[in-house]
Amino acid sequence: MPYDALGLDTLSLTLAVVVLLLWGGVWMARRARAGGAVAGARDCAVVRSLALGPRERLLVVQVGPRHLVIGVGSNSVSLLCELDGPLPTAANDAGFAETMRRTLGRWRGG
């Protein structure tokens, strides 16, 4: 059985082109998912996240100038309340807890 060098070169080149096309497709899919239409212009951002259980979370989401408290479960997403102002920038849990206590007390009517 003779050795066909030309066939092996063509096969290697074709395989390299396919791998490059796959890599380019994955790269473009990641860019489209992460950046959206305009990279750097984000309308929505998660400010804080607190795990309440294995599938439940409490999120503070900034949408434009508004800060929303959202409950996320395994089957639902619920808007709990809107904060009066932004959360304290210091990374202390006491400030977050106090803000949440005031906001939820006002929301419950207390």
Provide a descriptive summary of the structure in words.
- The chain is an alpha+beta fold and 110 residues long.
- It folds into two domains: 1-38; 44-108, no CATH class.
- The protein has helices spanning 5-35, 93-108, and strands at residues 44-51, 57-63, 66-72, 77-82.
- A four-stranded antiparallel β-sheet has the order 1-2-3-4, covered by helices on one side.
- It is rod-shaped, with a radius of gyration of 25 Å.
- The model has no long low-confidence stretch (mean pLDDT 77).
Structure summarized in a few sentences:
The protein is an alpha+beta fold and 110 residues long. It has 2 domains: 1-38; 44-108, no CATH class.
Task: Based on the model shown, name its key terms.
2 helices, alpha+beta, four-stranded antiparallel sheet, 2 domains, rod-shaped, 110 residues
Amino- and carboxy-terminal Cα gap: 89 Å
Could you list the spans in which at least 5 consecutive residues all have pLDDT below 50?
Answer: none
**Total number of strands:** 4
Task: Please give the radius of gyration in angstroms.
Answer: 25 Å
Mean pLDDT: 77
How much helical structure, as a percent, in the residues? Answer: 40-55%
Oligomer: single chain
Number of helical elements:
2
Q: Structural class, from helix and strand content?
A: alpha+beta
Strand order of the largest sheet: 1-2-3-4
How many domains? Answer: 2
Amount of beta strand = 25-35%
Could you describe the largest sheet, including whether it forms a barrel? 4 strands, antiparallel
